[in-house]
Design a protein that fits this description.
- By secondary structure, this protein is of the alpha/beta class.
- The chain is built from ten helices and 13 strands.
- α4 packs across α5.
- The longest helix is centred in the middle third of the chain and has 18 residues.
- It is globular.
Length: about 250
């Protein structure tokens, strides 16, 4: 893909079609690329000095992952044991971020969703490792990073050049914190329930691009695009494929 993540966020073209959590498993990456999405979203944990693609939390040093079943957007995957509202999964074939980047290189952009909270020291290690990995893969222009740990994003901004940073805003309290921020963010990953005329007018007036998640209904996608959403994050590849026609309508 010739266009960079920064250019894609600011472009005045069709909305970005973003495949939600399709970067978390190898077969899902392939499906998203075959569908022709613009961006593949991946959940990222920093563990053992490396970055790993998965939504689940790891149980200490055991090769066991835990998550709520409602977060298994595309099925539970292999080596899984359901436990009521939760499930555990053996982490027998962990997916490093380097592999995800190599799979999508030249075919899509990457939306890196940073999971977990980080102390200042851990945030610096995270940023340094991210910078090293992106330089090694020559992938910096094609990544945008979002997350709810805004301090981590600010630390990344201090150490990594050219990577757009999007504050994730899921709750009214986070929105109020955003209004009190001394400087506007480069962009937002905004929960669809918060996307109303007042909030989106605020963002449009300040030139802050925003992506909306998670949108699996066509009417909702139409509403959000009418409010100025730069991209739609969805679990449905068919909805993403049809975004251009929705935008035109």
């Amino acid at each position: 893909m010739a266009i960079s993540a920064a250019q894609a966020l600011q472009a005045q073209g069709p909305p970005l079609a973003i495949a939600h959590a399709f970067g978390n498993r190898r077969e899902l990456v392939v499906r998203a690329l075959q569908a022709g999405v613009d961006v593949v979203e991946v959940d990222v944990w920093f563990w053992g000095g490396r970055f790993w693609a998965r939504h689940e939390r790891r149980l200490g040093f055991l090769p066991v992952l835990l998550d709520r079943r409602r977060y298994a957007y595309h099925g539970l995957g292999p080596w899984v044991l359901p436990l009521g509202p939760f499930y555990i999964r053996l982490d027998l074939a962990p997916l490093p971020l380097e592999e995800v980047a190599q799979l999508i290189a030249g075919r899509a952009l990457l939306l890196w969703d940073a999971k977990g909270s980080h102390s200042p020291a851990a945030a610096r290690r995270y940023a340094h490792r991210l910078r090293e990995m992106l330089r090694r893969l020559d992938f910096s222009p094609y990544v945008m990073v979002c997350g709810q740990d805004w301090q981590l994003l600010e630390t990344i901004g201090e150490h990594v050049d050219g990577v757009p940073l999007l504050f994730t805003v899921e709750t009214p309290r986070q929105w109020e914190a955003l209004l009190g921020s001394p400087s506007p963010p480069q962009g937002l990953s905004l929960h669809r329930a918060l996307a109303d005329e007042a909030r989106t007018s605020y963002l449009r007036a300040r030139g802050i691009p925003f992506l909306c998640w998670t949108v699996d209904d066509q009417d909702e996608a139409t509403r959000l695009l009418s409010l100025g959403a730069r991209g739609i994050i969805s679990n449905r590849l068919d909805l993403l494929v049809g975004l251009r026609s929705i935008s035109a309508a």
